[in-house]
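Project standup — Tuesday

K.O.: blocked on the structure for the chain from last sprint. Re-posting the sequence here as requested.
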Amino acid sequence: MALSLDTLSPEPGPTASRSEPVMPPECRLEMPTQSLRRWSASQERKPVVDRSKARTQLARLFVFGGGLLLTAFGTYEMYQVVSISRTTVLQWVLVALFTVNFSWIAVAFTSAVLGFVTLLTTRRAPMGMPASLSHRTAVVMPVYNEQTSRTYAALEAIYESVEATGLGANFDYFILSDTTDPDAWIAEERAFLALRDRLGPDARFYYRHREKNHHRKAGNIADFVKRWGGHYEHTLVLDADSLMTGDCIVRLAGAMEADPDAGIIQSLPLIINRNTLFARLQQFAARVTGPVIATGLSVWMGRDGNYWGHNAIIRTEAFAAQGGLPDLKGKPPLGGHILSHDFVEAALLRRAGWDVYMLADLGGSFEESPPSLIDLSARDRRWCQGNLQHTRVIGAKGLKWPTRQHFATGIMSYLASPFWLFQLIVGIALVLQTTYIRPEYFARDFRLYPVWPRFDPERALMLFAITMGILLAPKIFGLILMLVRGNDRRASGGAIRLVISAILEMILSALLAPILMLIQSGSVFQILLGRDTGWQPQRRDDGSIPFKDIVRRHRSHTVLGALAGISAFLIATSLFLWMSPTILGLLLAIPLSWLSGQLGAGLALKRLGLLMTPEEHTPPPIATRANALQLRNATFDFDDKDGLAALYADAGLRARHAEMLPPATPRRRGEIETERALAEAKLSDAESIEDALVWLKPKERMVVMRDSALLERLVQLKQAAPELARAAE
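H.V.: unblocked you, prediction finished:
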């Protein structure tokens, strides 16, 4: 049974000083693991206010009714294309695959139409700043082997921006570390201690390093809620690449206080600070098309919205009572801990009657994006596994139908790639059948005509044009909105540059699409074959990838493109022309992937004023401040030090590190930890600190850093050589 915040009666708010604990006193909330199979309707929380749902229902009727009508029209036209003569089995398969793929883009199109019309016709007054706040909010940033100078710069810039609103006393800040790299761990601690010393005791910054990153990010947040959630009515969750202005954060807190039914309120993060070609391409596309898509979603989702895991505010009590995640039966990749936890957390809160919605027009929320195609595919692989796990969640009892739609959309976002691939394969097979297989004139059942697949070329061309129009419509809608808004148009380089940028983005996206299709299809097939992805830290910096790695990753795509092109040309010129965009994208996979991560290519387009966004033309002050703080932090070399050597050389750091360690976990009698035993043996054999630093492997270093006794044994070794001592300073 979850505890109430009112029952816990937390103190007005913990403060941080050098003499106080690194974390505030625990004020616990129970967070039971949910069952997705059993659900009692009596548990559902009834809303305080019966809100009007007419607008939301009409929007859903338009989006899904319109999508259904479009799909029916597309399916009918495809049937007419293949039904000139008696339809073969392959043609029926083609119609079925087309229907699935077309329904996916049809709903996206109608949702984009809704967003476009809303943005074009509605002038919403900006949400007002609350004069005061009654409740406390924890701003939490989970980190996992991140670049310390970047994450601490972002969090300090956020803190300064919130303080500038005059309501900073209502917010506390937590760095929740799941870091497994020993040098990164000590870098985080050094940066944290320097930050607290610099800002003073009133800054209310806290740091916690978790010994075992059980359940990864979801477990990290759950651990915070269980231990310290009772202090805070709200929790604002960031990612390591998040930036949010003080105005945005305060408005989110004000919106949560004004709406007692709200469980999660999601903001719309815009991509900023990107410089490589691929990242600037994503940044431009998100800025132009993102508001159209997000507005459409927010209108038809209403209070049955979704959660993207960051840049959102959560009612802590509701999350503690309902947001506990189940472990799915079986082993990964489809069993075990749910990777895409945010969708499920939103579903559980909605199931309990809490509202989840997005404020798409709330500015001041930012994030970053992967710097290259390969970096995107690495992140996408984890998301693909998490979304496919939702196939085991979508049918859970008690979920709202819009929630099931969110799950279906996430699942289809990855299944669409193999469906598209199958459609291409079936299309090629039909052309082969038409060209090379002799028709059967005298079948066993009496027929006047042979079974020979035929197509209506005029209808096929018209259907292709309609499909491409539906695919490109959201981009065109976004471009129109940017053109009619004078400030956005001028800040994007003017009308001509904006149009050229949009065309460039469409061309490059079209070339990258078949590569992503094969990458995502491969991910789906690997997951279905039982291959787990794990959880690797993301590269967030601007940097290229070694060319040999690019060749290794994309050589199969290039070979497949060459084979497809040669085969299509030998079969029929029309087939080659029809497949030419796909063939060209695959043939150029290696140079496109290499170019995607090039900083010079992105900056060259920036100098020409192409792919420019308003936020790039006039950077938000918080982004400018975060960049300046990152440069300052880089001078401290937090990220470039040997963590164990730093602890050895600095007694003050060692003492404060010991203060931040959690209580030792008692071991069962007879239990032997391999890493600990190895670390003890190596420390016993080491004659100098140099020996220990060379012999201890990363996991053994983590054991030493967690154990005060082993650290003391390390200190007893002979003094380091002068150059080592200087390196640790």
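K.O.: great, moving the ticket to review. The beta strands are 137-143, 171-177, 205-209, 234-237, 243-244, 262-267, 270-271, 312-315, 355-359, 365-367. The longest helix spans residues 401-436.
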